Amino acid sequence: MHSFTFFTAVAILLSFCSAELANTQGVANYSPGGPVINLINTSPTETHVYKVEGNADNPPTAYGAGQGALPAATVLPGQTVKFHLGQGFIGAFSAKNGEGSRFEVNFRGDSPGEYKTWYNSDMQFGMSDTTLAPAHGDKQINGNDAVAGEQDCLAKANSAWTSLDVGTQQELLDTGYLEGTTGQDGVLTGVHMDKQAGDKVVDFFQNIAEFNAYVHSGSVAGKPTSNTAAAADAFSWSVKTKELDITGY
Question: For residues 6 and 116, what is the distance between their CA atoms, to the nearest angstrom?
Fold first, then answer.
């Protein structure tokens, strides 16, 4: 039987600290209670990579101040990375290194007397099984559920698929952004999204399947249609916490 020595204790402590440092990214001099995003990878086999962007006007206290595009954030299978963003950060994290769902965050809090973190999910540039929500199950300031994005895009699309007539289903399949079969027993086997998707595709994801994300640019930019603009404008959310979770499935 081996005795527990001082050196054993030191080795364990150093091992713990090394693991903790490896799972921490962002600004080095972060303050307790400052803005942080927990990047959670639930997959046992896939490495998740996020494209990270910061606003050009971010203050010196924020991660990558004034640099725009920043080094990608890598999260190994089963790993959680605490990404400290520093005071005043505005920017975005995009799954699949920019080809999946994009999550915009604003930690500047613009309401006098009441701090707010603003955030949204954007699938205009790509789609992935990824969500953004306040940590610890917090709700939006208005009391509504606060999960942006979709845990399972294909399942969400399938939940609305058989509500369509066969003709509409076929039109959507012909776009190439949806794959599957038609009819009342039809099943989707794949869904995709990018900036070139037409109005029919956008309308299906945004208004019929009711994805929890901007599927179209809404009234923010681009050329909105009335229904998609109204739906997209519903997805600029706010919470009181400065700690958010981005979870990849």
Answer: 47
Residue 191 parent element (H or E): strand 188-191
What pLDDT digit, counting tens, does each position of 35-62 carry? Answer: 999 999 999 999 999 999 999 999 999 9
H helical segments located in the chain: 6-22, 95-98, 153-161, 166-174, 199-203, 226-232
Residue with tokens 């290194």: 97
Token readout for 150 is 């979709």
| Helix and strand totals (H; E) in the chain | 6, 14
pTM of the prediction? 0.86
pLDDT digits (tens, 9 = 90+) for 68-82: 678 999 999 999 999
Identify any residues that bridge with 75 across adjacent strands, giving them in sequence order: 48
Any idea which residue has 């009181």 for tokens?
240
- Longest alpha-carbon distance in the chain: 75
In angstroms, what CA-CA distances link 240 with 106, 110, 138, 148, 243?
Answer: 12, 11, 9, 16, 9
Segments of the chain scoring below 50 in pLDDT: 1-2, 4, 6-21, 219-224
**Contact assessment for residue 107 and residue 89, using Cβ atoms and an 8 Å cutoff:** yes
pLDDT in tens, 204-219: 999 899 999 988 765 4
